[in-house]
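From the shared-data thread, chain only:
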Amino acid sequence: MAERVEIIGVGSEGFRPAITDLSTRELMYEAAAKAYDDAGVDPRKDVGSFITCTEDFWEGWSITDEMVPDQVGGAGRPVCTVPADGIIGLGQALMHIRSGVADVVAVEAHSKVADVLDKQAVENLALDPTYQRVTGANSDVLAGLEMSAFMKSTGTTRDELSRAVSSSKKRAMSNSRASYGADMKPRDVSEAEPLSLPLRRYDKPDFAEAAVVLVLASERWAKKNKKEGVSVDGLAWMSATPWFEGGDVQGASYLSRAWKAVMKQTGLSSTSGFDILEVDDTYSYKLFQHLGALGLNLTDASKLAQDGGRRLNPSGGSLGTGYLIEASGSHRVLECVLQLTGRAGGNQVKAAKRALATSWRGNPTGTGAAVALSVGS
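Structure, as tokens:
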């Protein structure tokens, strides 16, 4: 049986639409300093490996990891960059620990997207240059096409999606880390500016900026050093087809496969065992699609998405917090850890013991991840 791994510290900085008083490196430093203080570790002595999750295109220069070591305390130490979502970076940390590379690993992910002058131009570089980019399509056009197909194949209505967005925005109002909480009516969502019909203005989150650092340790090291943490019970990431046109609009197979792997690792058979579900909602219809991939039938998924109470995305999700690109998954893990340790603030769920966080890398990818966390198990 693989050694248990625990998250022993978390730190974050930002969570604003635009951070003008800190550079990218200063933002990373602030989050890292808070995480090491929370974990009670010295990065120069205790941390054996440093991982950052970022894409060169978002940073504006190549070989971004050359600029990483100093601000996370990793100068002259093993540092690597994972061009992927924060939960996938968390998976790399698990492998580092379980393979004996390090006992303690720090995982950093951030968004400084307000510095990017043309965000759509960056996203368009991911599109097929022959069949997609040349037509003038962008990620929202692809989302509109998939949203239309999803609604038609599942019977999901415009009103259901609008109610889900309204619910997310309202939950975000009690989260100090959310930039876009609002008392928004479903009608406001349904009548908002069209982006690529049926996709409308509030069906997708606005960008936000933040940095999140997670500190992980082996259970053996944590016990030896008297550290209490949140257990990582299961983690997996999967990719579906490598082209947008081959996707399954109804099921999000990347997440359903990742979820099956997590179930096998944890011994759980459904999401009913989780007190918290932080599910990717990069677009409103994706929330429904991802709930279906987690095994909920369409009726239950719709009901939960429209009125999840405190169980589904108590943070307000990306729709309420803001889209954090590669830090989106790390943000959901952060929210889960804060919930499980009783530090979530105004959106705290009482007596939460188990949480599930999921992520999706965005169009045109078919890559997603899931991680199960717990305390007291």
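Residues 24-39 form the longest helix (16 residues).
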